[in-house]
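# nightly structure sweep
# worker-07 picked up a monomer target from the shared queue
# config: single-sequence mode, recycle default, output format = structure tokens
# input follows
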Amino acid sequence: MKQDKRIRIITGHYGSGKTEFAVNYAIKLAKEKKKVVLVDLDIVNPYFRSREKKDMLERLGIKVIGSSLEGGGTDVPAISSSVFLPLQDKSYEAIFDVGGDDVGARTLGRYHSYFQKENYDMFCVVNANRPETQDVYGAIKHIQAIQNVSRISITGLINNTHLLRETTPQDVLKGQRLIRQISEKLHIPIKYVSVLAEVAEKLPQQLDGEIFPIHLYMREDWMDGN
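# output follows
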């Protein structure tokens, strides 16, 4: 499969699991001894943001960039000027975790001149169990809104259909059928099938897209009643 570009932008609807994928992707690159920076551009959603795992990620050698005002319980919709670091310093493998809809994607607009065709990928995470993206029409409407607002083209799709720890192979395959239709209509390739490691082992190997086993870093066990 074609190698991902140096700058990877991860977007998707709220509840799609985009932040979970972004965090897992950053950790995977760090384990490959890459110089990694994770940029949290989500200034809309107050929950499950990648910068909440800053301490854990930085222990793994991953630089985290988020709000320009941090600490002391302060949380404001502002982005640090440090965002320009991975855009200008090509020694970094960069992952941008973007707010989960066209409103969140608007943040990308100010940086769009940096996202040239030759140096970025923008992946849209789709969860077929979310009401807004459970059918082809809704998913395509969502994708087109993100592209229009950000002025950046989506280059790959990620099937992340899940029910958290209750996810079954059948759930993933349901999402795969949906994302294949989206891919065919928009001519955007399926890049990854993001799935819990224990479920990944039970999936057929001939799926479109690379199977990407993940761990739930963003949700503690108690959140699911376990």
